[in-house]
Specification:
Elements (H helix, E strand, L loop, with lengths): L7 E3 L7 E2 L9 E4 L1 H12 L4 H8 L3 H21 L2 E4 L4 E3 L35
Parallel strand pairs: 1-5, 3-4
Antiparallel strand pairs: 2-4
Helix pairs in contact: 1-3, 2-3
Bound molecules: zinc ion.
The site of zinc ion (ZN) has 6 residues, from loops.
Length: 129
């Protein structure tokens, strides 16, 4: 088995992971990985630069650029061609809302205390009861 690639840190899984045209039959399905979704969330939604995004996700800036480009193409394909967009899979781990860049700007997990943004995940150990 090959050595796993450097995994990308993702703050939260999307609350909704399936999008598509309303009122017509989708023309196909596009699968976007969770790490691709995260770059769009951080850059387009949170307003981060690619540099900030790369620090946040714990990867090189050139890597972020590649992931982000792929994500944008998929969104465009879905919008233009009326395809279902499915967000799942990818090379990522979920942050705990504390380490490094997290616990601050852009980290949804750090906000989970006041509003439960994150769906429960079994992989992360919870320190609170
Ligand atoms: Zn985080």
């Amino acid at each position: 088995m090959p050595r796993p690639k450097k995994w990308r840190k993702v703050c939260c899984l999307p609350e909704i992971n399936r999008f598509g045209p309303i009122g017509s039959t989708p023309e196909g399905v596009i699968v976007m990985s969770v790490d691709e979704y995260e770059t769009v969330r951080l850059i387009d939604f949170e307003g981060m630069t690619q540099e900030e995004c790369s620090e946040h996700m714990n990867v090189a800036r050139t890597t972020v650029q590649g992931i982000y480009d792929a994500a944008r193409k998929k969104i465009a394909d879905s919008l233009v061609n009326g395809k279902t967009l499915l967000i799942e899979g990818g090379e990522y781990f979920l942050c705990d809302g504390r380490g490094g860049q997290c616990g601050g700007m852009g980290c949804r997990r750090s906000r989970a205390g006041r509003r439960n943004d994150c769906p429960p995940d079994d992989d992360n150990k919870r320190s609170e009861t």
